[in-house]
């Protein structure tokens, strides 16, 4: 599928079922993005209770700034960083809070182990694109999932179960509960029970969905801004002075380089789209976002290029279809990329999104590509990820 309108209809069609994660079963089999119909609707309704505007504002204004400062501080002191691992470390720290993975010891070693689980889970979810031995990798992911459970998930479940019991006994208040996915799921086990293995996959998925997509976007936004400023030196001051410039660059990056370049669905029935196009039951429908998001009718004659200053009709989202649409539309979109800033909006209470906030922090601290150490691509996957991206901080 290469047309925007057809893709929108496919995302919303109830007889088209998720197909993107069939190879990643070990971690993805029954997580929200892979459920369909009533099962998906119930899970989504439950998790939507957390993913509301007030929670995003609470994360962005109260919870995240300290984590961002704390994560970047050692690198500022060193004067350099490697963006791929830094981006994942930062986004993992934020996603751990959102998903409900505690780090009771707070030691670098503990974070390092969580990071190692996260990288294996990412490989598990994107197994279809893995270039090595897929069966061996799937077995490794399962082992890591069990180790993650023993080390991180079980203590996190226990802490929340105790808090919920104390809430029921009137010993603590709502404000004492963590605002995360794990708490929401545990609190509603009576209405929507989940086996522990399912809970484990869901939390591992949230950890990777929150961390990996945002970290990849973070890296690409940094790269695109470096390139834009090199070609438009007059815009260098905008990176630090115009608070919405970085957000526009983020939306433009996500349009051109979606975290997942394709959407994929199985036709559960024979289907006819409103323009007459037909799919037979069992067809696999592929939505090619790299073409759809570059439609010149919607994004202009220069749609192939990175241009944070493009003007768009109000109904055209600057990120195209990169957050999906319909029932599986990204639950973390506003958290990751904030809200689009429109004429008349007020900067003070504008939700910027964690990717723009993280990128802004880097530029506010004089981040530049390391002139002696060029970036390299990641050879272990067929997807276009950077493998290494050394940067320096110049004040
Ligand atoms: C730049 C960042 C992100 C991008 C580009 C992105 C992209 C997407 C896309 C394309 C989908 C739909 C998949 C489909 O329909 O096949 C999706 C779903 C989802 N995303 Fe994101 N995402 C991002 C950040 C996040 C964050 C920060 C979170 C966590 C809070 C998150 C959690 C989810 C979840 C749970 C779903 C499944 C929703 C459902 O099935 O109902 N995402 N995301």
TrEMBL record:
- What CDD domains does this protein's entry cite? cytochrome_P450
- State the Pfam families in the record: p450 (PF00067)
Among the GO molecular function terms of this UniProt record, one is: iron ion binding
Instruction: Give the record's family classification.
Output: Belongs to the cytochrome P450 family.
Protein name per UniProt: Unannotated protein
To which species is this protein native? freshwater metagenome
């Amino acid at each position: 599928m290469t047309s925007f309108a057809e893709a929108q209809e496919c995302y919303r069609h109830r007889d088209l079922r998720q197909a993107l994660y069939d190879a990643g079963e070990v971690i993805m089999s029954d997580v929200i993005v892979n459920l369909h119909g009533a099962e998906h609707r119930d899970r989504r309704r439950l998790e939507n209770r957390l993913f509301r505007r007030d929670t995003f504002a609470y994360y962005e204004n109260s919870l995240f700034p300290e984590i961002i400062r704390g994560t970047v501080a050692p690198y500022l002191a060193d004067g350099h960083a490697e963006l791929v691992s830094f981006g994942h470390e930062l986004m993992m720290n934020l996603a751990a809070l959102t998903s409900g993975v505690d780090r009771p010891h707070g030691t670098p070693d503990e974070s390092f182990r969580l990071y190692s689980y996260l990288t294996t889970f990412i490989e598990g979810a994107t197994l279809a694109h893995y270039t090595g031995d897929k069966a061996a990798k799937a077995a490794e992911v399962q082992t890591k999932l069990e180790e993650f459970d023993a080390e991180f998930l079980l203590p996190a479940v226990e802490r929340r179960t105790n808090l919920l019991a104390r809430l029921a006994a009137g010993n603590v208040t709502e404000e004492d509960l963590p605002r995360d996915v794990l708490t929401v799921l545990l609190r509603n086990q009576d209405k929507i029970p989940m086996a522990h293995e399912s809970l484990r996959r869901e939390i591992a998925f949230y950890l990777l969905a929150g961390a990996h997509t945002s970290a990849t976007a973070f890296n690409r936004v940094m790269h695109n801004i470096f390139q834009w400023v090199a070609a438009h030196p007059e815009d260098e001051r905008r990176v630090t002075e115009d608070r919405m410039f970085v957000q526009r660059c983020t939306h433009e990056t996500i349009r051109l380089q979606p975290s997942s370049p394709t959407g994929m669905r199985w036709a559960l029935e024979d289907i006819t789209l409103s323009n007459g196009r037909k799919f037979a039951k069992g067809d696999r429908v592929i939505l090619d976002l790299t073409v759809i998001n570059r439609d010149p009718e919607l994004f202009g004659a220069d749609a192939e290029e990175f241009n944070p200053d493009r003007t768009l009709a109000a109904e055209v989202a600057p990120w195209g279809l990169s957050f999906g649409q319909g029932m599986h539309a990204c639950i973390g979109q506003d958290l990751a990329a904030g809200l689009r800033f429109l004429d008349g909006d007020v900067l003070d209470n504008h939700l910027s999104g964690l990717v723009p906030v993280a990128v802004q922090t880097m530029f506010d601290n004089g981040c530049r590509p390391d002139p002696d150490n060029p970036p390299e691509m990641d050879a272990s996957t067929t997807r276009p990820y950077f493998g290494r991206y050394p940067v320096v901080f110049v004040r």
